[in-house]
Design a protein that fits this description.
This protein is of the alpha+beta class. The chain has one domain (about 10-385): Thiolase/Chalcone synthase (Peroxisomal Thiolase, Chain A, domain 1, 3-Layer(aba) Sandwich), CATH 3.40.47. The protein is about 30% helix and about 25% strand. The strands form 4 sheets. The chain has a 9-stranded mixed sheet with strand order 5-4-6-7-1-8-13-12-11, with helices on both faces. Strand 4, helix 4 and strand 5 form a beta-alpha-beta unit. The structure holds acetoacetyl-coenzyme A. The site of acetoacetyl-coenzyme A (CAA) has 24 residues, from helix 2, helix 6 and strand 12.
Length: about 400
C-alpha cells in the first residue's frame, strides 16, 4: 500500500487594508512636548492610521477581502470568519455586512469572533479545521480593528487601524500551517473594554509582562506538543501592540531557551506595523504580510507566529513557507496604501477621535474615504454601508 502524503492546509493569500488618514508620531510628540525618540525607539512606532469619518472595521475588512475575491473569486468559500475587538454591533456579525458588500452567495456561514487581539488566530484555527474536513472548501478570514485609547493617556501613541483578510485553503500558495500549536490562557486585567466604552482601558506595564508570560508559556506548550526546536524556526512574527513589546518578549524567550538574541531578526516583520500602529486582531497578520513581502530567504523555511490577546490568551503556531511565495508578493500594494494616507494635524485627529465612538443615533457620514467601501451612516438605528466610486 502506498503511503498518502499528509494534506497541506494553510494560508493561500493575504491582503491588507488600513485607514484613510495617518498621524505622524513626530507631530504628537511635538504637541505633547515628548522627545520623538521615545516613540521611534522607546516604543518602536513611527505613525498610526486613523479611520475617516466614513470608515470602520467593516469598510477596512471588506476592502482587504475584496482583494482576495478579485484574485481568487468566491468559489468554494462557504465560511466567513470576522475577528475583531472593536465590533460595531453587539448582535450582528461585522462579517454579515462584508458578505453583503462583496456580494457573496447566500450559502455561506458568517460569524464574528472575540478575544481581544487573539481572535484572528482563533479564526485561522477554526478555518483550518473546516478545510481539513472539507478540502474543496476555502474559508475567508478577516481580522480588522480600530485601536482606540483615551487621548492624553500613556497609551495614546499606540493606537492604530487596519485589516487583514486571508484565504485559508488546501494546497496553499503561501504557507503550510503545521498542526502543533502552543496555547496559553491566564485571567489577567491588562487590557479590557467594558460594554459602555469605545476606548480600551489598559495597564501598559502589566500588559507587557502578561504578553511575555503568554509567549513563554505558549512556547513551552508547543514543545510539549512535539513542536520544533528553536533553531528550526527561521523567523518569528509577533502580535505587535507596539513593536518594542515583541522585542521584549522575544528577548525573554531566547533567555528561557538559552540561545542568543538578535533584535534585527525581527525587523522586517515590523515594517508595516510601525506605520499602521496597533491593529489588534490584524496586527500579527500585517506583520506576516510584511515578512512575506520583504524577506527574500523564506522559501521552504519554518516561521513561528505568536498571537496574543489581552485578558489573556496566547498561541504560537508554525508554518512552512512555500518555495514559490515570492511569486505572490504584494509589497508595492501595501507601500502604495500606506503612502496614500492623508496626514492629519493633532487637532484634526483629536476631533475625529472624539467623534469616533459607535452610536445608534441616526446620522449621515461625510464622503471622505478613498477606499472601495464606506460607512454611509445610521438610519432608523441600523448601520448602512455602500460601495464608493473607487469600488
Ligand atoms: N529615547 C529613547 N527611549 C525612550 C525615551 C527617549 N527619549 N524616553 C523614554 N524611552 C523609553 C523608555 O525607557 C521605555 O523603554 P523600556 O520599556 O524599554 O523601559 C519606553 O520608552 C516607554 O517609556 P515609558 O515606559 O515611560 O512610557 P509610557 O509610560 O508613556 O508608556 C506604554 C508606554 C506602556 C507602551 C503605553 O504607551 C501603553 O500603555 N500602551 C498600550 C499598551 C498596550 O498596547 N498593551 C498591549 C495590550 S495587547 C493588545 O494589543 C491589546 C489586545 O489584546 C487587544
Amino acid at each position: 500500500m502506498t503511503q498518502q502524503q499528509p494534506m497541506r492546509v494553510g494560508i493561500h493569500d493575504i491582503a491588507i487594508a488600513t485607514g484613510h488618514h495617518v498621524l505622524e508620531l513626530d507631530d504628537l510628540a511635538e504637541t505633547l512636548s515628548v522627545d520623538p525618540a521615545k516613540y521611534h525607539v522607546g516604543i518602536g512606532q513611527d505613525a498610526f492610521s486613523v479611520p475617516a469619518a466614513d470608515e470602520d472595521i467593516v469598510t477596512m475588512g471588506a476592502a482587504a477581502a475584496q482583494e482576495i475575491i478579485d484574485r481568487h473569486g468566491a468559489e468554494g468559500i462557504r465560511t466567513v470568519l470576522f475577528a475583531t475587538e472593536s465590533g460595531v454591533d453587539q448582535s450582528k456579525a461585522a462579517g454579515v455586512f462584508v458578505h453583503g458588500l462583496l456580494g457573496l452567495p447566500q450559502n455561506v456561514r458568517v460569524v464574528e469572533l472575540k478575544q481581544a487581539c487573539y481572535g484572528g488566530t482563533a479564526a485561522v484555527q477554526l478555518a483550518l479545521g473546516i478545510v481539513a474536513r472539507a478540502p474543496h472548501e476555502r474559508v475567508l478570514v478577516i481580522a480588522a480593528d480600530v485601536a482606540r485609547y483615551d487621548v492624553d493617556t500613556a497609551a495614546e501613541p499606540t493606537q492604530g487601524a487596519g485589516a487583514a483578510a486571508m484565504l485559508i485553503a488546501a494546497d496553499p500558495d503561501l504557507i503550510d500551517l503545521e498542526p502543533a500549536a502552543g496555547v496559553f490562557t491566564a485571567d489577567v486585567d491588562d487590557f479590557w473594554r467594558p460594554n459602555d466604552r469605545s476606548t480600551a482601558l489598559v495597564d501598559g506595564r502589566l500588559s507587557v509582562s502578561a504578553y511575555v508570560n503568554a509567549f513563554v508559556g505558549a512556547w513551552d506548550d508547543l514543545a510539549g506538543q512535539g513542536g520544533p526546536a528553536y533553531d528550526d524556526i527561521a523567523r518569528f512574527v509577533h502580535h505587535q501592540p507596539f513593536t518594542k513589546m515583541a522585542i521584549k518578549a522575544h528577548r525573554k524567550l531566547t533567555q528561557h531557551v538559552g540561545v542568543p538574541f538578535d533584535e534585527s531578526d525581527l525587523a522586517l516583520g515590523f515594517t508595516y506595523n510601525r506605520q499602521t500602529g496597533n491593529t489588534y486582531t490584524a496586527s500579527l497578520w500585517i506583520g506576516l504580510a510584511a515578512l512575506l513581502d520583504l524577506d527574500d530567504d523564506l522559501g521552504g523555511e519554518r516561521i513561528g507566529l505568536f498571537s496574543y490577546g489581552s485578558g489573556s490568551v496566547g498561541e504560537l503556531i508554525t508554518g512552512i513557507v512555500r518555495p514559490e511565495y515570492q511569486d505572490h508578493r504584494r509589497q508595492g500594494r501595501v507601500r502604495e496604501l500606506l503612502a496614500a494616507r492623508v496626514p492629519l494635524t493633532v487637532p484634526e485627529y483629536r476631533e475625529l477621535h472624539a467623534a469616533g465612538a459607535a452610536t445608534s443615533e441616526d446620522v449621515e457620514r461625510p464622503r471622505v474615504t478613498a477606499g472601495p467601501f464606506r460607512f454611509a451612516g445610521v438610519r432608523s438605528g441600523a448601520r448602512h454601508y455602500e460601495r464608493t466610486a473607487q469600488a
